[in-house]
Amino acid sequence: MLKNIEVNSKFWNDRQRVIKDQMIPYQWEVINDLKKIDIAVTNTGGDTSAQDSDKSYVVENFLIAAGKKQGKRGGMVFQDSDAYKWLEAAAYSLECFPDSDLQKKADELVQIIADAQESDGYLNTYFTVNEPDRKYQSLYMSHELYCAGHFIEAAVAYFKATGNKLVLEVAQKLADNIDNHFGPEEGKIHGSDGHEEIELALLRLYELTSQERYLKLAKYLLEIRGQDSEFFLKQQKNDVALGRKSLIQGLEILHKDFNAQYFQADRPVDEQVEAKGHAVRVVYLCSALALGAALSGCDKLKQSAYNYWNNIVGRRMYLTGAIGSTCHGEAFSADYDLPNDSIYGETCASVGLTFFANYMLRLNKDGVYGDVMERALYNTVLGGMNLDGKGYFYVNPLEVRPEYSKKNPGLIHVLTRRAHWFACACCPPNLARMVMSIGHYAYQCSDETNTIFADLYMANKAEFELSGNKVVIEEQTSYPWDADITFKVQEAPEQGFNFALRIPQWAQNYQVELNGTLVSDFKIEQGFLYLASPVGSGDVIKLHLDMPIDVVEANPLISADYGKVAVMRGPMVYCVEQCDNGAQLQCLHLGELKDLSGSFEQDVLEGIYQIKAQGLRRINDFALDSSLYRKATPAHYEAQEITLIPYYAWCNREEGEMRVWLNPKP
Ligand code: FUB
Ligand code: ZN
User: Fold this and answer.
1) Selection from 216-225, 589-598, 629-638 with the highest mean pLDDT
2) φ, ψ at 388 (rounded to 5°)
3) What is the pTM of this model?
C-alpha cells in the first residue's frame, strides 16, 4: 500500500496552495459565522431550497444540539455535511502542509461534533434539535446517512492525518448506531438513505479498522436499495399522514409523480443497467459498488459497477468528464443527450466520477479507468474553481453566452462567473478534498503480484509497503504539460518489485528507458506497460509519452456535437473564449491539424500550454436588422488566428462567451 506521498508537482501544488490559503480559511469563517456568506445571486437549478439568511449556522447547530447554546437550528437539513467536508479537506491539507493552527481549529471542531453526538451514537443536528421523533423515518429527504457518511469519511481522513482518537470513536459509535437500526433482522429498517454516501464511507471505515461489520453493513445498504421500490414512497406517505413538514424548503413533501429512479431505487442495483436520476447520487453509489466489489470479491456488486460504468462512460459523459445533462433533478437524462449549454455537469458529480474511476482501477487494472479519471479531474473538477481559489462553479457548461444565461430561465443555472459561495455549498469543499488528496491517486499496489502501478503522473516522492517491504520512489515530471516522466527507485527490497506504467489512450507513441537504455522487453496489457523484469534500488525508469495536439470528434449519435470538433492535448480539453477570439464564437472554424501549434506560456493564466489555430471566421453578410433567414448562399470567410486555452482555466479573465465544440474547416 501507499504509505506516504509528498506531492511536488508545481501544477498540483499551485492548486493545493490556493485551497489551503483561500478556500479552507474562507469556509472556516463561513461555518463559524465569522463572516456573512457572500452568496452570489445564483440558482443552482436543482435544489430549490434557499438559504434564508447570510448565516450558515453550521457550527452553531452542533452547539445547540449539544445543549451548549440556545437558539434555533438553521440552514438546510444536510447543513452538518458542510462541517464534515471542511474537516476532510483540512485533514488532507494537514497531510500536505502541516499547520498547527489549522489542526487546532479542526481538533476543536471534532470536540464540538463529539459533544453533539447522542449517547446511542446518533449524530444529526436537525433531528436531535428539531424532530427527535422523526429519526430515520424520512430517509427520502433527511440526508441522515448522507451526513453520517461525510462525517465517517472525514473521520477516516482526519485520524490518518493526525491520529486524533476522538474522531474515530465518534465515527465508530455513529456507524454502530446505523448498524443497530439498519439490517435484515426483524425490527430493523430495510432500506437506505435517499442520497448515497454512507456505503462508501463504511467501506473506508472497514479498510481502516478491519471490522467486518462495517463491510457487511455497507453491502447490506447497497443491496437493499431498490428491493422495495416503494420504500421511500411509503415513508413519504407516512410523513404526510402524520402532518409532518417537508425537510427541504421549497420541495413538496410528496411529489405528484413519485420517482424512485431519482434515488436509484426503482430496482435493485444488480438490475440497474442505466444511470438514472440524480447524478451525484449515482456516482457515489457506483464508487461504493466498485470499492465494495474490490474489498468483498462479490460478483454481483462487480457486475453492477460495470453496468453503470458502461452506460455512463459509453453514453452519458461529456468530453470534459462532466455528467448530468439536466438541471431538473440535477440528473442524467437519456443516452447521447449531452447538450452543451443547458448541461448541469455538477462539480460534485465529476468528483464522484473521479472516485468511481479510481475504484474501478482498483477492481480491474485497466488503463481506461485512469483515462476517465484524468478526463474528469483535469477538466471539470479543476474547472470548478477559479485560479485564485476565490470562486467556484456548481454547473460546468461546455458552451456559454452570458446574455442568454441571464435572460433565459432555462439557462439561469449556468453561471458565467464563478460564485464565492453557494446556499447549497456541496461543491467547493468536495473539490477541496479531491485536490488536497490528489497524491492518493498517483499509485496503486498489489501485494499478490508484488507490483506497483503508476496510475496518475505527477511529481512526487512516495513511500510504499509492498508485500511487507519498504519501497521509496521519486517521480519527476512536468505532467500534465509534457509527459516525460522519470522514476528513481530510492529504496527497494533485494528481490525488487514489478513496475507497471499506465499508457493513456491519447498516447499513440511512447518509449521507456531503464538506466539510460531503451527497453523493448515489456508487455502491454489493458492500457498498462509492464516491465519484463523487477526493478530495484538505484534503478531509473524513464517513460516518454508523445503528447501531440489532437482534434477529436464525437459519436454522431450525440446530436449536440454533430459536425463539430474539439481540441485536446493529453488529458486536457481546450476551449475558446471571447476575450481571446472576439464574440460570436459559433462563427469560428478551425483549420486542419497541421494548422494548430502550441507552446507553454508561463504568463498566461498562471502558466498554461496555449494552442493557436490558423482558422477562419465566417463573414456575416446578412444585412443587420433585416431577416433571420434566407435561401442558402455560399458562405464567405476571413482568416483568423484562434487562441485555445485549457478548459479548466476558462472564466478567469473577462466575462464572455466560451465554447468547447467548434466548427471544422468548411
Ligand atoms: O443533496 C446533497 C447535495 O446537494 C447533492 O449531492 C448535490 O447535488 C446538491 O443537491
Ligand atoms: Zn455539488
Assistant:
1) 216-225
2) -90, 5
3) 0.97
